[in-house]
Design goal:
Elements (H helix, E strand, L loop, with lengths): L5 H20 L2 H10 L20 H10 L14 E6 L9 E5 H17 L7 E4 L7 H13 L2 E4 L5 H11 L3 E4 L1 H14 L3 H4 L4 E4 L8 H11 L2 E3 L11 E3 L6 E3 L4 E6 L13 E7 L10 E7 L14 E2 L5 E2 L4 E3 L2 E3 L1 H9 L4 E9 L14 E6 L7 H15 L4 E5 L14 E3 L6
Parallel strand pairs: 3-4, 3-5, 5-6, 6-7, 17-20, 18-19
Antiparallel strand pairs: 1-2, 8-9, 9-13, 10-11, 11-12, 12-14, 15-16, 17-18
Helix pairs in contact: 4-5, 6-7, 9-10
The structure holds zinc ion.
Amino acid sequence: METMPREELIKLKEKKLPEAIKRAYASPFYQKRFKEIGADPNDIKTIDDLEKLPFTTKEDLRKSQQENPPFGDYSGVSMEKISNIFASSGTTGEPTTMVITRRDVNVWAERAARIFWATGLRPDDIAQNTYNYQLFAGAWMVQWGMEKTGATLISMGVGNSKRQLITMKRYGTTYFTGTPSYALSLAEAAEKEGIDIKKELKVRNLLLSGEPGSSIPSVREKIENLWGAKVHDFPGQSEALGWSGSCEEQCGCHIIEDHFIVEIVDPETKKRVGPGQTGVAVLTHLEREAQGLIRWWTNDLTYYVEDECPCGRTGYLLPRGLSGRSDDMLKVKGVRVWPAGIEEVLRSLPSVGQEFQIILDETNVMESGVLTKLKLRVESKESVKDTRKIEEDVITNIKARFNLTPEVEVVEPGTLPRFEMKAKRIIDTRKTKG
Ligand SMILES: [Zn+2]
């Protein structure tokens, strides 16, 4: 399946597409949408035909669930087929509910197992899952996928760093899953507890997703050096969980094309863009039974390349995984800047410590939302009196990358917040906000 020639892969996707459209069209939500634009579901046969259809956004789903609580009118299957209920964290508004069927569970498990296997997880591994199990679908997808590989599972859930470390030591955990931010926090916690993670723990592989990082070389190298282990990525969240994943070559993430049709769309013009160009990933589910979404606007920014990968997988590659949410995109004097891009630069600087913040306040944000200046707050690696050298380091390297001169404040190591799940590094202190 994974090394299928591209012509055959496209044929397979287009064979699955009408079925997927039919499943979606079983819901009042999509019947209404098709009617609104005068489209006939039987006319959508090819990947190009999809462009005739509108995007499905988070706002659309929220509205559907407000009007038809609690599941909305886009599930397309009857209640007796639903096997699990999940919900988004609601960090960007009202939480949305996700439902899946038994068939969906199996599809998720297969998809996750394929990625875990590609990253080296084997039946003799002991895998520790630190994602949040509470209503969060991602933790369960990881759980089911790991079960399928035959590995031994430790279902820890989120947080409690000391207990995570003791558990790893006691049972000899070899494979770790969580967010990149948590892998960094945990390494720091280990140092405080006097645990040498390279010597006393047996972790060989870390699968870190839920936010950008694992596919950004400087971030990956930093975590790999701290842990003495390999870092892998499994991008894709909320309504489109895990739609791509690392391979053993670590040259990016392959799109899992037999489960999704992926279009990369410019966030402003809303037109498809080609290889190498950054845009929002728009996904059409080919295998989802409940809530099969058509042209789902993920809000995740990425780009793909058509290069062949030495691993032989034919799914197109996302060389840097996902680069962040499009609503986290900042415009500084017309230059597009993402937190992951800043992170990439900062993690490559040895004088800079673990955490950083991007500051938005009255002095640098105009009414239009455009920034007049990039303001960064960074921790130093060591406690130093004179921080000028670090400031210069940051300014020179940010300027080289973005052609912008940032304002930099250096703070003491360990003074900025740490994260157990997704990091929050854009800090908006404007009083008038919202
Ligand atoms: Zn590959």
